[in-house]
Each structure stands twice: as structure tokens, then as C-alpha cells.
Amino acid sequence: GVVQSNTKYGQESDNFQYFTHNGAEADGSPISVTPKDWPPPFLHHPDPLVPYIKYLMFFFNSILFTLGFGLLCIGFWGLAYKQSLISEKIGNLGTDPMLIFVLVGLVVCVLALSGCLGFIRENICLLRLFFAGISTLLVAQCVFALVVLCFQEQIQDSVKRTMMVAMSRYQDDSDLKFILDEIQLGMECCGVQSYQDWSINLYFNCSSPGVNSCGVPYSCCMDPLQNGTVPNSQCGFGALGMSEAMASTFIYLGGCIPQIVIWINRRIWDIAAGYFLVMAIELVCIVCAQRVMREIKVVKSLY
């Protein structure tokens, strides 16, 4: 048919007239329509970045899902290996460190999967879930950063108390034993404030009748490995009953909290850069999700 405008060239109009091949309907009257009745290409210009955003976010969330699934597998493997899911031990599941891997992996998998399917299938419900989840994480990170800055002393005291409790359960919990040994080996430290803190453990206390009496874990030793491969569990025997000068010849005297504080202060800018990089990536994800959702809403309103 022929399209006839009631305005001059280059001017906009609220109404347009459509005619049949003979210029009018059967009764001779023209067809008058508004721009909303025009096909979508005349009303909406698609966002040229949306296709690139979709595939970029699909690729990013695929990697994120793989990492989350890996954490989930590690967590379940750890729980199964220690038989933490059996009825006799299920009551202590809440204090199992492996549960952290499971929970973090589950959250990452859900968010990444909703992002993958939401972007590639243009599913607005999944995109809203992804948007809400990432926004919540971003807000939580901002709050966490403010709490750390405002309550440094309280956090340090809380970490001290937690480490003291872990030290008292050193032989009773294999996970706590592993974590404490890794901290002491990595930081080259012993105890919380000093090596004398290990007297809180019943096995290492000098009042204990066992072979570990007045000793410290092998991870406190300067040379913790026997023949360079096997941990020497006896290298710290008797350290608590010696003078500091004598003990300093084969174990670290300084506590782990001061060493951790020194380590953080030396790398504070690297930590801050990494933290803000993660927040920037989350902000980009939020903007991308919002842009794709807006495009989906516009297209749906035209049909």
C-alpha cells in the first residue's frame, strides 16, 4: 500500500494514514493509525551492546559456575571423608569448616547458573535473581569493609579468642589441627601472642602426664620436617619448660596474631586493590543485568 503523511518531510506527526492499493477502504475512508500500531522496527532501535553483553556475561558466569561447583565438590568430599554426615556426627555439622565450602559453593553455583541461563535465554526472572544476588553481595562487602575499619580492635580480640579455643581442641579436631598448623608454618609463629599460649591445651600443659607435656606442636619448630619430608612431631617437646633463650634455638617464640597483623599491613594496598576489583566486577554485572532487563521489557511492550 501507499503511506501518506499529513506533515511535511522531516517533521513528526501523531497520526499517519494507510491506504489500500486504490488509496482508500471499501467505503472510501482512509485508515488512520497511531505510531504504536507501527511495526517494532519503526518504534525501537535495539541496543547494539546487548548481544555482546549476553555472550560476555554467559562466558563469565560459566567460569564462575565451574569455580563454585569445584568448591561444592571439595566441601562434600571433606564431609564424606570425615563421615560428618552420619547420624552420630550430624550434630556437630554446624562447626565443621567444610560446611563453609559447601555453602559458598552453593551460593556461587545458584548465582552463576541464574546468570548463565538468564542472559543467554533472556529470562527476566532469572536475571532478577542474578541482579538481586549480586547486589546483596555488593552491599554485604561494603558493610564488611566498614565494620573492619571501625572495629579493628574488637575483631582482633575475637580472632584471639577463636584461636585460643582452637588451640585447646588441637588434638580433638583434625580440621582445626590442620588450620592451626598451616597458619603457624606459613606465618612462622607459635601460639596467639607467644608460644606459652599452648599451655592452654591439656596435652601440652606441663601438668599433663603424657609425652606431649610441656611441648608445642611441630608447626612451631624452625625445622619442622625430619629428613626434609616427614613432620617431626617431637621437635617441640619440652619447649614450655625451657627458658626463652633456649627455646628460641629451635622454635618460634612470637605469636601468630602479631605476625598476621604485620603481614596484612605489608600487603594492605594489594588486598584493597583485589577487594575493590571484585566489587567493580560485581558492579559491572549489575549494570549489564539491568541493561539487558530493560531491553527485554521494551521489546515485550511492543508485542
UniProtKB/TrEMBL annotation:
Keywords linked to the UniProt accession: Cell membrane, Disulfide bond, Glycoprotein, Membrane, Transmembrane, Transmembrane helix
Entry superkingdom: Eukaryota
Subcellular location: Cell membrane; Membrane
Membrane topology term: Multi-pass membrane protein
GO molecular function: enzyme binding
Ranges that cross the membrane: 55-79, 99-120, 126-151, 245-265, 271-293
SUPFAM superfamilies noted in UniProt: Tetraspanin
InterPro entries documented for this protein: Tetraspanin/Peripherin (IPR018499), Tetraspanin_animals (IPR000301), Tetraspanin_EC2_sf (IPR008952)
Listed GO CC annotations: plasma membrane
Intrachain disulfide bonds: C190-C206
Pfam families for the chain: Tetraspanin (PF00335)
Subunit-level organization: Interacts with ADAM10.
Function: Part of TspanC8 subgroup, composed of 6 members that interact with the transmembrane metalloprotease ADAM10. This interaction is required for ADAM10 exit from the endoplasmic reticulum and for enzymatic maturation and trafficking to the cell surface as well as substrate specificity. Different TspanC8/ADAM10 complexes have distinct substrates.
Similarity comment text for this entry: Belongs to the tetraspanin (TM4SF) family.
Record protein name field: Tetraspanin
